[in-house]
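ASSEMBLY PREDICTION REQUEST
Request ID: AP-0331
Submitted by: J.K., bench scientist
Number of chains: two
Total residues: 670
Priority: normal
Notes: Please return the full assembly, not individual chains.
Input sequences:
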Amino acid sequence: MARTEQLRSAPRAARINLSTGVWESVRIALESLRSNKLRTFLTMLGIIIGVWSVVSLISIGNGAQQAITAQVEGIGTNLLYIVPGAQQGGPGAPSTSSELTLDDVEAMRRSVPEAEYVTPMFQGSAKIDGGDISQDVQVTGVQAEYSIVRNLKVARGQFITEDMDAGARNVAVLGGGISEDIFGSSDPIGQSVRLNGQSMKVVGVLEKTGGLSNEDAAVYVPLNTGYKSLFGGRATTAASYRVSNILMQARTSEAIDLAQEKTEQLMRRRHKLDDSGKDDDFTVFSQASLLSTFNTVTTTLTVFLGAIAGISLFVGGIGVMNIMLVSVTERTKEIGLRKAVGAKRRDILRQFLIEALVMSIMGGLIGLLLGYGTASLVGFLFSEYITPVVTLGAVMLAVGFSAAVGLFFGIYPALRAARLNPIQALRYE
Amino acid sequence: MALIELHDLTKTYKMGDVEVHALQGVSLTINEGELVAIMGPSGSGKSTLMNIIGCLDQPTGGQYLLDGVDVGALNDNQLAEIRNQKLGFVFQQYMLLQRRSALRNVELPTLYGDGRNRRERAEAALKMVGMGERMHHKPNELSGGQQQRVAIARALVSNPRIVLADEPTGALDTRTGEEIMNIFTRLNAEQGITVILVTHEPDIAAYARRIIHVRDGKIGLDERNEKVTRPAHAPETVSAS
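STATUS: Completed
Returned structure:
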């Protein structure tokens, strides 16, 4: 039966034709989109703006997160902070009055074996005079170990030594920025600055860090020097010296939790809180908790902004669907003709689906370029603070999402086109 | 040899609650190589008959054998394949895609079937209807007669057994209409393609050797046309290459 054979062989020819069919559909789609340039552009605009905002917001958010993480991790490793006062609101919330002293530091050194280093700091402000500069700065009194714990990088000279601290010598270590402000390109080592009128010899300068940190503007003096000649009476108590906060570096990352626990017990004991059943009047928090707090904030922000951008992408998808429905109606006769000359439902379905996809993916790619551009611009303008990170994930999310939007909102119009009755479609006016 | 066999064909539409009996028992045989005109007033059922013969629609009752295949038993996809491979359509309003050239219009059926040598076949079909010189023109750069020639080339590109022409000269003036009819006559005579014309104009039907009159959903008169209109002059398009 030659006739039935002919019929059966047809699907094979159609299968061979599939790739040409896809290419042809893309070609038809481009033709049709070109013939209505303004309409196509306005429809794509919804997708463009959606992807644009998704990509730029997510990459800026990622950049912010990385900047903060780098900042926090740059402070040192395996750190615990002991600060006075109970802090319900997490780091940075106002503390209730209480104090930490050098005696607390000594007690920790004795009773917390998990701690590699325990080092105190006292922060005060002073007027600095040097070169043409005269301004108020934050002066931090520290011990020698501080630079190890904080992972400070000395560019020139040396950091404060134990001898300098023991002798309460009038020396200072300057941040990279303030050193440049005062001394310009000349070598600051051996020169003097005045702190509250007191002459201090510069023994070291830190590397310039840039970014969000205030390390560049820091001025360090030996702790005992500070007590003796800078910080005045508010730094002393009846029996000891006050400290602003205490930094503890655990021996290993596994030891952090135990060190934190022991420190808390020790401090409760020392402050006699267990006897009276009072709440803590100090706070111990770890670098990890600090980081996770920041990360929670930035992640929430990124997700929130991304979700808003996602909504605009969704709205863009509705625009695609709207225009595709118009397009199907406008081209009813064409669909009828195509069916008359042998187009099957799946051919018509594919044609309109590809048209929706082409429109949304093109919009997605344009949006991606704009988003990348925006992220780069932000990185260029605010290079000191943030380097936006356009991750592959964000790119795939944006392009995948816009393709999915095209598919989702294109399927209904395409199905409507595919289901048209050829006779009615040919007669449609 | 019978190419089209209709046995007691019926077609009933539902228009709301009313049943419309568009075809009420049509039996008909059309042999390969015939040039047939189907005539009838509007509402006679000739459009329905043409849609069924063209595999755009399926009968409610009776049997339709096209080239030995029972069309009533085919699904949508199989119908589309038959339309693609065995049938060519020519419409009153040409139905060309405005944004593409004559050539690409003619290629259209090959996108849905055999795509081999698409370009060459489309060019050959255009030359056959005397449009070899203008195949890169778009429809709006062509006259009505030229557009209809392109439409005929599109119907021919898949090498169909049957060309179905629905009022092919309805939108053309008399002289251009004659040229179009000459093409159909020539295709029928020279290539043996079965041509079925649907028309309500006796002048056009006169080109056919056989005229079938449809009235009230039935075959009224199936007559042999003794005075077939011959091409007034040998069409210059025959030798065009």
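REVIEWER COMMENTS: Residues 32-58+76-224 of chain B form a domain with the Rossmann fold fold (CATH 3.40.50.300).
SIGN-OFF: pending second reviewer
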